[in-house]
Amino acid sequence: MAGGGNVLESVREDDFVEYYLFPPIDSRDDKEQEVVLNRVLSQAEKVIQKFTKQYLWHKDEFKLTARTWISNSLIHDNGKTEYLPPHLHGVTHFGDNIEDEWFIVFLLRQLTKEIDGLIARVYDADGEFILIEAADYLPSWANPDTCENRVYVFQGNVHIVPLEDQETCPEMTQMVVNEALSLIRDDPVDSLASADIQNCIINKLKDYPEKIRDNLHRATAYLPIGVAAILKHKPNLIAPAVQVFCNRDPVDMRACKAMKYFPPENRVSASVTFTKCLYAMLTHSKYVPDRRTGWNLPKADSPQYRAHNLGVKIACGFEILISQAKPSQDIDQDKGWHNYLASLKEKNYFKELLEHSREYNDLLNKAKEYYINHRDSMHYAPAIGQEILQLTKTLDFKVDELKNSEANLPPEDDDSWLNISPEELDKMLQERYGQKKFVTINNNSNPTTLTEKISSFLDQVSDMDGVEHPDVENSPVRPPRGVKRRSKVSFAQDTKTEDKPTNNRISFDPNAFSCAVQNILNFVIPDDDSWDLESGSDMSDYAEDNCVNEETYQEVKNKMQQYMEEMDKELATTTIGESFEKKNGDGFDDIENFKPVDIDMNALKNILESYRSQLGEAGPSSNMLGPMGIHLDVTNKDGD
């Protein structure tokens, strides 16, 4: 679904979340609609202010604008245009911090609780991401094609407008927003999602608003006086500064070498509040400042190094932002404009017109005009740089006060959360996605366990979606071959399985197949028409053939025997055989000192050696055995 009435408005990055708030308005008069929308907007802003006062947005803030009936439209994927009822609308880009997206869901849920009759709709680039969270509990008909325009939040609860005819093709199930709103208001019980779905969303949001504070991190940074004063005046400017620094390019680096606006000569220690996401981004962004600029960082093992290092990066971020501030009509050097233009081209805005043609230039001029008029509200606009530039000229601050405050800075937060051990990561994944059943294999394990597990996995039924490996608890019996469980992908990140037995039994004659392969190896073409693909023959035809005549077969056998004898002579002069693990020669008592190779033990030994060489990172052994439910452990009982 494309939001907005035209391509110019709907162009955006993939990290967006779009939301609508529909109040109950029956009037078709624009003035009456505006009165109601402004009243609801005023109520909504009070609720938003209550919860976002201490919130630090990663990229865009949550912002609502009023839209009357005739001022907006909705263009569906099938090209049909639908005029939406009057509503409040907003788009937020959340960048690398997915918490912003779910915090917006929390806000929408609170708004529908506190404002009577308000119905919310929210989606992102993946579509109905709310349903992704509850994918295990969705009705059987629910998938991305059938759920468009059917998912809403009303009175704090999730509502899914049911599909009337589940056998209808997805193309015929397009729900009209206005109709969905009427169905929810007329019969809220019919569209109310199940308790399991409600609980999934409630559990996802249960830590808000307390979680707002938990997502913040306070650290001390050694900053140029101007940066410290600006952050004290407007702390949320730390977000664009960190982002622009972490996404810097060679052009931005020229500004960092000059440091025209925030020179390093006069600095002060200041307490800076980040989100954990921003702090992690800045900490892990490698940067070595040019000493000729005036940066004099202490040694890496010094207690002051972290504060100095953070200060350099933050100051460079502010310098880059100012360097990107351009006059209002000058967009030729505006990187935001070039990003916007590239997005328009991807959406075929220019309709394959010849560049510099009259029609192309007309569309280009319209795009430039739209960008200039709206870039202050666009996430990659130079408006932030202009704001910072203006603050450097008008902000009144006292250097003595900033220096005196160094002695009373609040303590820094512990940043040990940056380091997560593999065990902690496994625990987090298990809490999020459930406990996975593993069979642990190590040096002391029975080697047959490994081969049996692999054989069991290879025996499973597979289709284009992958292997259907039975869960130990839920599916103790593998479906017999020929009766296959169909797996249907529900949403972007989860699957929902429906049991639909299908008879896809294939008649297969192993002897005939063996003969066919033998013919290929011996370069023998049958005399009949069995190799003619247009004939009605099948593999069973080979069962009646003599794969090769006796003379040819004996000739091949003699050659193979000769090859084997030559190989034995070559290997006899080496010690390669001693590298294999042997087992007692049961059944070979008549052969002196003969010990057959223990295939299972050698397989286990080689796989464990491969796992050791991975040094805890991803590799062939863990990638191959992990999906089979096999956990490798290179230590033995003695801890070696």
UniProtKB/TrEMBL annotation:
Annotated stretches, region: Disordered? 467-505, 618-640
Q: Which Pfam families match?
A: SGT1
Entries under InterPro entries matching the protein = Ecd
GO terms under cellular component: nucleus
Protein name (record): SGT1-like ecdysoneless
Q: What is the lineage of its organism?
A: Eukaryota, Metazoa, Ecdysozoa, Arthropoda, Hexapoda
